[in-house]
Amino acid sequence: MVSASLVPVYLHLISLTLVGWGLGRTLPSVVPLVLGKFLFWVGIPIGIFAFLRQATLSFSLWLAPVVACTSIVLGGSLGWFYLRWRSGQVGDRCLSVTKGSFLLSSMVGNTGYIGYPVSLALFGQDYFSWAMFFDLGSTVGAYGLGAAMASRFGIERENQPSIAREMLLNPALWGMAAGLVMRPVRFPAPLEQGLVGIGWFTISLALVLIGMRLSQISSIKGIRLAIASIGIKMLVVPLVVGLLLLACGVSGLVHRVLLLQMAMPPAFATLILAEAYELDKTLTVTSLTIGSLGLLFTLPIWLWLFPINLPN
């Protein structure tokens, strides 16, 4: 059951990422920058708007951002304890900027560009609202606690981004708000189908963009630290919070959506924060690379531990 359900997901993820990798090696370096801005300001908000109109909403959706923030806090806490333990080892201390990058990679996941397509491919549009509200909590955590953490360990700069401004101007949040407000409005069938088509096309472009960005990575360093942060982010946190959710009565497909969102690799937002606060960008890039590739191996583990064919 697990292997069969993953075949179309893997074909989608790997093929589009490889296309992006090839394009990234041949096209000018400005192309992924333009594509990234297009997806951030236009594509992703339209996709959220379109899929939100098709998704099933309920009052219990408040749980998704709470779980997202809980996983971020837990990842940061575990990362902090790991660094404290590591600093106690003889001759094994990290620079402050390296600590900041390590903590960010342990906390913030790629719940948008990777989490969305995985959730849609495995669970369909009916449960997309859970992934989207989880991403809402992840965004707040990234530019809230994540930015505060980056500021704590980063180099002081006068042009550091305003946390409130970054959150208020996030177009994904505006797309979500518009989708919620416009849900009662009935659109003509061609327009509705067109919006959904744009949403799926945007998801595909997001995977292509990931491949293009990965193709621009020239070297990776600090593999030991990167693997530790990935272990916290993609293995320990999902297992602990996932079991806690089951103990609290959250099961079925809702549990699987939340679990896989927690198990996503580090977000590209960690690189944005690392550049803004002058953290260890090399470690951040290494974590992004290992985490993105590692998802191919960790995804079947979670589907095996928590089968998706259980009733909700």
Automatic annotation (TrEMBL):
It is found in: Cell membrane. The chain crosses the membrane at residues 7-24, 30-52, 59-83, 127-146, 167-185, 197-214, 226-247, 253-273, 285-305. The keyword Transmembrane applies. GO terms for cellular component: plasma membrane. It is a multi-pass membrane protein. It comes from the Bacteria. GO terms for biological process: transmembrane transport. Its main location: membrane. Keywords: Cell membrane, Membrane, Transmembrane, Transmembrane helix, Transport. The keyword Cell wall biogenesis/degradation does not apply. Belongs to the auxin efflux carrier (TC 2.A.69) family. This is AEC family transporter. It comes from Oscillatoriales cyanobacterium SpSt-418.
